[in-house]
Design goal:
Helix 4 crosses helix 5. An eight-stranded mixed β-sheet has the order 1-2-3-4-5-6-8-7, sandwiched between helices. The protein contains five helices and eight strands. Strand 3 and strand 4 form a beta hairpin. By secondary structure, the chain is an alpha+beta fold. The protein is 28% helix and 32% strand.
């Protein structure tokens, strides 16, 4: 079962999220740098809902000291006509720009391509999230197009999202 997998990257381990991760992950989600892109009002309730969601695989990003420093998640479309996986990630701002997100994403990308047999992966950052877009592009994700008025903001307005994809044939080796 995919949600029971643990994956080892160069600097991080990805392992299934457990109840004991609540404090760390909610604290990371509450930081301004993450909350800006990962909205939510009742993060404790959302954490419980996320744990119960069997459609999305959530993996804690853990450093070499066994400290939870983020989360990477993916969903899989299994219809053979449209088979692909979609990825999301957030990382503690205390370790931004240190290669942690790149390592976590590269690790999950390898798993999705090599172990689960996907040929196409997508990720959809806010169109204004240049740090995330640059990180994803560095792994090989390419912009596909802007999804206009894609995500509702807390004030009720809408913002655009950037759909990016990585094909098995295009991934850097």
């Amino acid at each position: 079962m995919s949600d029971q997998v643990s994956l080892r990257g160069r600097r991080v381990t990805l392992r299934p999220v457990i109840e004991a991760d609540r404090t760390a992950l909610v604290a990371i989600r509450r930081t301004e740098a993450v909350r800006r892109w990962w909205k939510g009002t009742d993060l404790d309730a959302e954490f419980a809902e996320d744990l119960a969601d069997e459609e999305t695989i959530r993996l804690a990003v853990v450093d070499e000291r066994d400290t939870v420093i983020g989360l990477v998640q993916f969903t899989e479309e299994d219809d053979p006509e449209y088979r692909h996986a979609s990825i999301d990630i957030y990382i503690d701002p205390a370790v931004h720009r240190q290669g942690v997100a790149t390592d976590a994403l590269t690790t999950v990308v390898t798993h999705l391509f090599d172990d689960l047999g996907h040929h196409r992966l997508t990720i959809d950052p806010a169109a204004t999230n240049s740090a995330a877009i640059n990180c994803y592009a560095g792994i090989g994700f390419q912009p596909v197009g802007v999804m206009r008025q894609y995500e509702r903001q807390p004030d009720g307005s809408w913002t655009d999202g950037l759909l990016m994809e990585l094909l098995l044939d295009d991934r850097p080796r």
